[in-house]
Every structure is written in structure tokens, then in C-alpha cells.
Design a protein that fits this description.
alpha+beta, six-stranded mixed beta sheet, three-stranded antiparallel beta sheet, LysR family transcriptional regulator, LysR-type_TF_proteobact-type
Length: 317
């Protein structure tokens, strides 16, 4: 038995939550992975995992062993990385998950420069607005907006975005243009953005001179994907609240009109997030550094009106 390989295999099962995901991420047959873990258990004389037909759970002994060996694995990988970084180029597959409108309007237009700079990195983009479990879904990092509540993840702030409220000229002509947020309750049709996790509609948020207001009214249409949400607004289905970078083109050509601009809510934070209990490979390190650098540069150029990015680009939350 190769003990180091077996430890790495066991750690991946713990992180992935089952043998199938772990085997896929390690590119090995499920049976080979299972045999490797069994040999490790036999060598140690303890059961590390409890297996059923539906799930795998870590025993108390397995959890203690994972925590101790994870530190050793990280130290070994750090040593390898430090020795190889100077003479090797970042390479390999990088899996990044990003929301729909952020992918379309922010990340993808920037990617040609990244791919030219790092030709040996292959990039898989998962584009959706649904929540992602970085470990079990085998994702290297996610780019997401909003407050963070998971202390087991490392988050680096890449900037803030502006939320605006808008509708088509035809809708405003037929239904009137509200002058105050409370007027949205008076028969206006709101197209709400709905959480893909719990199905709840996000309220329309407004702020002026420190006064914060949330509008929650029954909606006829809810959409749980950002590009489709914008499309619903463009179709004249009602008033939407979306990011200015997403609506920028429609605002320029007049197909959408911003309303209640004096009540724009506080800037919305965006982060790149990755696990803290997993070694950060060189390809992920350079991607994060490039991401922060690229967003910072764009804040000095044409993106400044749509997204405001911080000057301290290495902030860690």
C-alpha cells in the first residue's frame, strides 16, 4: 500500500462526501478508491468511514485522522509548490462557478487576456445562480455577490456592484412612473428575483440619506436566474431591480429606463470564495490574483460607471 496516496484518497472522500464524487475528481475507478481506503483502515486498525447504500459518514477516529493528515498534506503540497513555482507554468483544469449575468457581462469579456497569459490552464465555467457546495461539487472557487455567512470558506472581496430599479418605457407610459418606493405597492407589477435555494422572492431594497426601505408585495412573476430576470424586464412584464452592469446596454439604447435613482440601495459586495481546508494550487492562485487585478483595472476604465471596485484589492474577509 502506498500510504501517502491512500491518505490523499481518504481525504478526498471526506471532502466530497461520497466515493463516487471523490473517484471522479481523482479520475480513478470507484472500486479502486474503495479498496485503497479499506487497505488504509486495515493498516491503521480502525474504521475511518461508515458506509451505507446511500451515504458515507466519517467516524470520530476518521475525523481526527483527517484533520491531522490534512495539515501534513498541505505542508507537502506547499513544499512542492515552492520548489516548482519558479520553473513551472500554471497548468491543469480549473473549475469556477459564477452567476449568469456576472459571467456574461463581467467575467467572460475579461477571459481572453487570462487564457492568453496562461495557455496551459483549462477552464470549466459553471454558470448558474444556484448555490454551490465547493467541496462536494468539486469546484475550485465561486464568484458570488451578497453577504457571506459561511466561516469555513475564504473570501476575498473583488468589489461592489450598483443595484438599480428600471422598467421599459412602454410599461412606465401605461402604468406611470413611481416617484417614491412606497408607490410600488399601488398596483405596479414587480418582476422579482427568486432564490433558487428556497424559492423566496428578494425584496426591492432602497436607501436615501441613511433611510432604508424594503418593498415586499405579492408578485405575478418570479425568476431565479439573472439573465432571464433581465429578459423579463426587457419584455415589459414589470419593474425589475438588477445590477447596472447587466442593464447598461439596455439603458444606453433606451429599452430600459432607470427609476427611483435617488433611492439606490447600498453597493452590493462581490467576492471570490474558495475552501480554506484545501491546498490552493498554483492555477487557482494565479486566477484569483488575475481576477483581482483585472477588476481593479476595469474600475479605472469603462466599467467604472457600472461596478465600483476597491483600491485595496487584497482584502480578506
Amino acid at each position: 500500500m502506498d500510504q501517502l496516496t491512500a491518505i490523499r484518497a481518504f481525504a478526498r472522500v471526506v471532502e466530497a462526501g461520497n466515493f463516487t464524487r471523490a473517484a471522479d475528481s481523482l479520475d480513478m475507478p470507484n472500486a479502486t478508491l474503495s479498496k485503497m481506503v479499506q487497505e488504509l483502515e486495515a493498516y491503521l486498525g480502525v474504521r475511518l468511514l461508515q458506509r451505507t447504500t446511500r451515504r458515507v459518514t466519517v467516524t470520530p477516529e476518521g475525523q481526527a485522522y483527517y484533520e491531522k493528515t490534512a495539515r501534513v498534506l498541505r505542508d507537502l503540497e506547499d513544499i512542492d509548490t515552492s520548489l516548482n513555482a519558479a520553473r513551472s507554468k500554471p497548468r491543469g483544469l480549473l473549475r469556477v462557478d459564477v452567476g449568469g449575468s456576472t459571467a456574461r457581462d463581467v467575467l467572460i469579456p475579461m477571459l481572453p487576456e487570462f487564457m492568453a497569459r496562461y495557455p496551459d490552464i483549462c477552464l470549466d465555467l459553471g454558470v448558474s445562480d444556484r448555490p454551490v457546495d465547493l467541496i462536494s461539487d468539486n469546484v475550485d472557487c465561486v464568484i458570488r455577490g451578497g453577504p457571506l455567512d459561511n466561516s469555513t470558506l475564504i473570501a476575498r472581496k473583488i468589489g461592489t456592484a450598483t443595484l438599480i430599479t428600471c422598467a421599459t418605457p412602454a410599461y412606465l407610459k401605461s402604468s406611470g412612473t413611481p416617484a417614491y418606493p412606497d408607490e410600488l405597492k399601488n398596483g405596479h407589477r414587480l418582476v422579482c428575483y427568486v432564490s433558487s435555494q428556497n424559492g423566496r422572492a428578494f425584496p426591492f431594497r432602497f436607501e436615501r440619506d441613511g433611510e432604508k426601505t424594503e418593498i415586499k408585495v405579492p408578485h405575478r412573476i418570479g425568476v431565479n436566474e439573472s439573465n432571464a430576470h433581465l429578459a423579463a424586464g426587457l419584455a415589459g412584464l414589470g419593474i425589475i431591480q438588477t445590477f447596472s452592469y447587466s442593464a447598461n446596454s439596455a439603458l444606453r439604447d433606451g429599452t430600459l429606463v432607470e427609476i427611483l435613482n435617488e433611492w439606490r440601495p447600498a453597493p452590493y459586495p462581490f467576492h471570490v470564495v474558495y475552501p480554506q481546508n484545501r491546498h490552493v494550487p498554483q492555477r487557482l492562485r494565479v486566477f484569483i490574483d488575475w481576477l483581482l487585478e483585472g477588476f481593479h483595472i476595469r474600475s479605472q476604465q469603462r466599467f467604472a460607471a457600472q461596478i465600483i471596485f476597491p483600491h485595496k484589492i487584497n482584502e480578506r474577509l
